Amino acid sequence: MDTEKRSGKVWKWLIIVFVIAMILLTLFSGTIQNVMLPKVVTASPSDEKLKAEINGDGRLQATEQTDMTNQNGLPMKKIRVNEGDNVEKGDILVEFDLSELNHQLLDEEAAIQEKELNGDKLKQDFLDATLGGDEIKIQDATRNLDSYKIEFGIEQRKLQALKNDIEKKRYLKAPYAGTITEIKASKDDIPSAGQAIATLVKKADGYQFTFSIPDDQAKWLEEKETVDVQVTEGKKSAKVKGNIESIVFGNSGGNSQGSGMSMAAPDASEKKDDSASPGAATYQVTVGVTEEPKNMALAAGMKASTQIIHVNDAKGYVISNDWMKQDQDGKYVLVVEKQLGAFGNDYTVKKAYVRIIASSADQALVSGLTKKDDIITESSEPLQDGDRVRVKS
């Protein structure tokens, strides 16, 4: 009897120990399994407005300026202007040395005189043939005289053309009223065709500057948009108004006079094509200065800068571009979905598709999310829709 009681107690304790062991194993197995899950860090989307701050700077250039050149490669006798001189249309800028052309002119004039002497002889031959009455001699004399008249006419036209050419090449004149901003040559230089002699800036045409920005910044800007421009010369500076004259795709190479940077820009679907990756394409922005500062005079070479700030008022949430991924259905982020499990909360990865309203190099304004969404920003290993994860606190 006692043996049976002891045996029953043993079995009873064995059952209790077994149940406890099973419970502990279940608990520990869940804990161990959770420890083995991928670890993630999450963040919530921001409900702040997406702000764009575009900065660009460059050097003022005349809206219209011309490099006055030695088109004919002639030696220069005298440069009649200096840097800073104001000139009117037709004013003489450079006088050229035409010694060689003048020698050609003398040769042509001598040839004409020789032709005239020969012509006098032919006229006398014609007169003698006419008085002699010999028809053959008359015909020969007539033919020779007619030939002379044709050749003499050609020589006269050649002489006049040379005179006109000399007069045309004697001076380099201003094509319009303006200011000489730079002298690029000396009269002692070895002459060469196309050599730049001076830079002439057209009067009252204004100034402009150019800077380059990536495409995600250019999308915020509109041509003819009014902007504030800061112009600086030494210790003097002034704020004036300007207009965006052009936004041109592509690098302008050597004509680029400045640089720009920005914090944000609208999405490609709302303006320019965005097939390239952010920052891959470049736009050249030209800003024209539309007013003269009160305390200083604008001049080519002055430093100019602009800061353009825009805010996108569209409804949505701001997230980092790094959080977004893309598949055949579009852009999406991975969010953590919390569910109550048998031994606590279970966290599961879920795709949340978004529509980009506006974007920058770093951030995007999107729809399709809520403020409570926990977006996965970091993970210990690659994740897929439906994976269980462990959220780092």
From TrEMBL:
An example molecular function term from Gene Ontology annotations: efflux transmembrane transporter activity
Chain segments annotated as transmembrane: 12-32
SUPFAM superfamilies, per database record: HlyD-like secretion proteins
Region Disordered: start-end pairs: 251-277
Organism domain of life: Bacteria
Alphabetically ordered keywords of this record: Membrane, Transmembrane, Transmembrane helix
One GO term describing the cellular component: efflux pump complex
Protein name stated in the entry: HlyD family efflux transporter periplasmic adaptor subunit
Organism of this sequence: Paenibacillus dendrobii
